[in-house]
Amino acid sequence: MHQDILLNMENPLQLEKLYRNNKPAFRVAFNALYPQLKGDPLAEGWYQRLNYSQDDLLWGTRNERLFVVIASLVAVLLAKLPDIFSLDKEFFYTRNAGFIVFPLLIAYFGWKNDLQQKTGLWLAGLILFAIGFINFLPQGRPDDTLNLSCIHLPILLWFFLGFTFGGGKLTGEPNWLGFLRYNGELVVMTALLLLSGMLMTGITIGLFKLIGLNIEQFYFNYIVISGLAAVPIVGTFLTQTNPQLVGRVSPVIAKIFSPLVLVMLVIYLIAIVYSGKDPYNDREFLLIFNALLLGVLAIIFFSVAETKAAKSQIERWVLFLLCAVTIVVNGIALSAILFRISTWGLTPNRAAVLGANVLILLHLLLVTAQFFKVLTRKADLSEVGKTIARYLPIYCLWAFVVTFLFPLLFGFK
């Protein structure tokens, strides 16, 4: 986006097209370039246009509001299917939780980005195939491949959402970094909505208790579940129509938590040595260790995605060290998995975790190398973002393998 803006500074019509194609990304990129463009009348006009602040929230167009209302109602209906048709709730939610929200968000961005009909049909076909596949997988003992498919299928749907977010383009530079930024903003907005919902729930139940009515079961079965289904859709709508809502909060969160996580991670690694715990013989500890790895990786990605302009050298060092320490964590987890495979053999779970850890390690090495170039002033910080973004389809490919091929390769065990 930065390069496109610079190349079209003499072409107002093309700038307008770039802006309308992706308003949040254009605003971020232009503000980052503005110090270079000061004094240019066109740049001054764009700067005032993009940074005009207003007190009122924007509620989108009538069609957008209608779309969000209908999508929210559909999400609520899908979430209540087990009650409507007396389905087994464990069977339904473990296999279909991702289909309650992701297809609706995909439809939202497909509509917003005017996705080509052919591309939309392909996506719809893939989603329908995934629904049929996951629901017809046999239930056996053990259920390792089934559980792995249920875990990795939402990752695949998440990739479809990112593909649609970027306009459904297979060529050019897909907006994966913008998609990661959207994810961070959605997490913040969702947390705010859920906190508000929890407060309302407590007040409502408390008020009804005062008059002798216990509505807990009804409230949780209908209001809470409906709210949980609709929150991602409403949160997406708010972040897209009002990017200023969390646009200033997310970078602050990234700036605060990156050094805190770095310190926590170093202390945790030291504590492991003194505690006597190790992931080599303790399966549960290994699972927690890998969950920690994924959480730190998400924070790194979020911090880089929220880096909208040149940051201080201290912030760059923090992210570089965080990547380096995470490589150590990944190395420990990877060696533990290899030890367990060599000792007790290969299972679907071990194969899935091994593949994921290898991919994460390679990604971290590439990102850390780019950060080193940034610190030595051999590369721009934007290159780190590109390195993160370009690797994401590889995770999608692995999720596809685990979801659809592992049950076949391991005989549905």
Automatic annotation (TrEMBL):
The chain crosses the membrane at residues 66-85, 92-109, 121-138, 145-166, 186-208, 220-240, 252-273, 285-305, 317-339, 351-372, 392-412. The keyword Transmembrane applies. Keywords: Membrane, Transmembrane, Transmembrane helix. This is DUF4153 domain-containing protein.
